[in-house]
Design a protein that fits this description.
By secondary structure, this protein is of the alpha/beta class. The protein has two domains: about 120 residues, Response regulator (Rossmann fold), CATH 3.40.50.2300; about 90 residues, Arc Repressor Mutant, subunit A, CATH 1.10.10.10. Helices cover about 40% and strands about 20% of the residues. Strands 2-1-3-4-5 form a five-stranded parallel β-sheet, sandwiched between helices. Strands 6-7-8-9 form a four-stranded antiparallel β-sheet, covered by helices on one side. Helix 6 packs across helix 7. It starts with a strand and ends in a 6-residue tail after the last strand.
Length: about 230
């Protein structure tokens, strides 16, 4: 089935180029010049992913992303931030508010398409895997639900994939590079610090259910998952 991408970009020339690139890659596109227009589109449409410019007139792209992640009906919409900002702190800020990936202008059209495909792969539930149980954790890929002691956790698609990988490999230590390869995919360039950002967000959710220490830091190497409740 053809995937639909919502493009939010205030520079008309860049917007037209994005439309052409994605339509040639067999995507359907919806377009908006402002955050307000994007919200109007989202009221009547459910795209598979949004490419969102950081700097927009009026409501900024960052603020729009923050609002969407607080909206129960839109919080799982994958977002790729597209911006001229290249500083590391800006990248981390974008990821912390819930963006799934980050590209800096000028960008390669082929890389953008590759990243969109990668984000769609990792944020789509895998319906071929059985129910997975590790201690108090239970993960249902058919329904895309993660529970602890039968309580449903509110996690993003990427966090769901991350905990899924950990639950498939309990008590094993993985470096940041290994996690990037297994969860993000080798075809996509993402900085290692991205792993730390998403681990921190996932731990915050787990802590609300008494399981913050389920994901342990192994100093000098990476992270390990152990399906035990905090003492």
């Amino acid at each position: 089935m053809q995937k639909t991408i919502l493009l939010v970009e205030d520079e008309e020339a860049i917007l037209e180029m994005l439309e052409m690139i994605l339509q040639q890659a067999d995507f359907s596109t919806l377009s908006a010049n402002t955050a307000e227009q994007a919200q109007e589109i989202l009221a009547d449409n459910t795209p598979d992913l949004m490419v969102l410019d950081w700097m927009l007139p009026g409501i900024s792209g960052v603020e729009l992303a923050r609002r969407l992640k607080k909206d129960p009906t839109l919080k799982k919409l994958p977002i790729i931030m597209l911006t001229a900002r290249g500083e590391e702190d800006d990248k981390v800020r974008g990821l912390e508010i819930g963006a799934d990936d980050y590209m800096t202008k000028p960008f390669s059209p082929k890389e953008l398409v590759a990243r969109i495909h990668a984000v769609l792969r990792r944020t789509s539930p895998n319906n071929n895997q059985p129910l997975l149980q590790q201690g108090v954790f239970q993960l249902n890929t058919d329904k895309h639900i993660l529970t602890i002691n039968n309580q449903i956790l509110d996690v993003s698609p990427l966090e769901f994939k991350l905990i899924h990988f950990f639950m498939q490999n309990p008590d094993k230590v993985f470096s940041r590079t290994q996690l990037l390869d297994q969860v993000w995919g080798r075809s996509v360039y993402v900085e290692e610090r991205t792993v730390d950002v998403h681990i921190r967000r996932l731990r915050k959710v787990l802590a609300e259910h008494g399981c913050k220490e389920a994901i342990q830091t192994v100093r000098g190497f990476g992270y390990r998952f152990s399906a035990t409740e905090d003492k």
